[in-house]
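Supplementary Text 2. Reproducibility record for the structural model of the 405-residue chain.

All settings were left at their defaults, and a single model was retained for analysis rather than an ensemble. We include the record here because the model underlies the residue-level annotations in Supplementary Table 4.
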Amino acid sequence: MISLEVLKRAQETLAGKVNVTPMIYSQVLSNMSGAEVYLKLENLQITGSFKSRGALVRLASLSKAEAAKGVVAASAGNHAQGVAYHAQNMGIPATIVMPQGTPFNKISKTEKLGAKVIVSGETFIQARNAALDLVKSDGLTYVSPYDHEDIMAGQGVVGLEMIDQVEIPLDAILVPIGGGGLLAGVASAFKHLSPDTEIFGVQCDAFPSMADSFYNQNNTKGGYTLAEGIAVKEPGELTAPIIKETTTDIFVVNEIQIEEAVLSLAENQRLTVEGAGAVGLAALLQNKERFAGKRVGLVLSGGNIDSRILSSVLLRGLYRDGRMAVLRIAVPDQPGHLAKITKIMSDNGANIVEIYHQRMFFDLSVKLTEVDVVVETLDQDHVQRLIDQFVGEGYSCREISEKNA
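Retained model, structure tokens:
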């Protein structure tokens, strides 16, 4: 574990230079989960992520010669911004290697913070290898996103703050895992100061590398994920032993569960949280019985979600819940039928968003029009009532947006 002395020293380094982020009680998420839920809002941290904590502690430990030469880091975005932000403030040249597929907003934000960005490799591991090549060729200092004591100590200050911010000790905490720096640091803090609190890690099912290490499995296949901030194929060499020593269990959640957690935080808490930051809530909602009646802390580790991806998540959630649907209605191509369709919608409390009216001419005896109506509804039952109403009025009507699409 990281010693309490090292954690406290990191906290002193961070004092006045990063936010002591709020920890809030969530009544709505408590009602949804059956637990007493507290949220640690690292999405409100400087640069929008906990990563700026470890980055500062690591940069502050550099010698004058190392600082003058410059640093290099590999990151999908949050670590990149943390390193770039503090390096700029400290006058340290910074180069960031990002894997292909990194959201554009994270690339542009990193460049605006003064760092040189190189896009290389399809995965974090490949980007890391490219960064290590620059260490050899240019003499730069590599700033790991998780596998260094300074990094883990900086992230562990999140745990120190959580312990200070709740009057009654938490029964359990759920922490996202990529390489494991956040969990290793936070778990160390809790084991020193709140040893009865159970520690749980959470990963996405495309990259459960720490869970594989924890349980001696081999389920890490890679691929695209909403939780790109924790898309790490190999667990940290230094973080894995600490996590094995301190952690009760590691949950693995799928993409739909992560989407639903992002949507729930946006709708119920008015919080913008990226996929990696929402996995703790996803795991809690999938394991309600295990945490029922317990005081549970969730670390919302970051809020740097691409606006287009967030828009898609919100829209997909509306369709999935039946709060938006597309109905395809076949009607005679005669005057008055489109008006009748809109009246049926209005009478049944549905709001029309868009109508696509496509005429298909066959011969004089068969003239039909298919109308696709994008409609806002209350839920899936409301959608079904609309369909039943149209069928009862003699129209052919079906939903063409699948509930789970």
